[in-house]
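Hi R.,

Here's the chain you asked about this morning:
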Amino acid sequence: MRISFHGAAREITGSCHLTEITAGRVLLDCGMIQGGKEPHERNRAAFPFDPASIDVVLLSHAHIDHCGRLPLLVRGGFKGSIYTTAPSVPLAKVLLADSAHIHEEDAGWAIKRLKKQGKDTSGITPLYTADDAAAVYPLFVETGFDRWNCLDGIGRVRFAMAGRILGASIVELEIEDGDDCRHVTFSGDLGAGGARLLSRPAPVEAAEIMILESTYGDRDRDKAEYPTELFYEIVSRTASKGGVVVVPSFAVGRT
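And here is the predicted structure, written out as tokens:
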């Protein structure tokens, strides 16, 4: 068995991890690279593997840095199934459609700007289109939490609650490699625990190999016991001074 990392290694976006065995190839997530150096060029670069050679994709959750390059994977020749939890399917469809719209809009603005400057616009295209995003949807296979799903010739997969956003999961993968059975667990993005609308991450069985999110490293997250009350206090204090509270609410799970 061979595992290689093609995103979200030494950085926090572009989750994309490939597991290869004799019987097939499994891709854990296929996310867009956001921020950092030259994200546009990196997202447009060819995958370091042949998309058509991938047998199955296991999607941990619907955030764009985990699912945002699925349209490129499909456009490149991937025809397999994309397994994910039932809540993640409609959410991923909304996010991919929105992402495609942004790419089309950005390309449109770039063309408009270059035309005003009398420059060539022939090389300006969106990263992917709404049609590219829609081509992904028929490949989704939705499943419930804590239920084993058979992956023909490869093994089986089970999704456990991760508590990050609606539908977010920890991926447990049992791989049949010859006479060996290997247990790989991919944490996805874990929730903080204690959120009022989401369950805390579920315990999983011991794994031989753990692929683990480590965004915070050795830092402790804010352990405020009463975040709603603290938010109320901030708003009240600012309002009493005639100030303005700016609340960024453009991202899934932030509002």
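One quick note: The chain has one domain: 2-211.

Cheers,
M.
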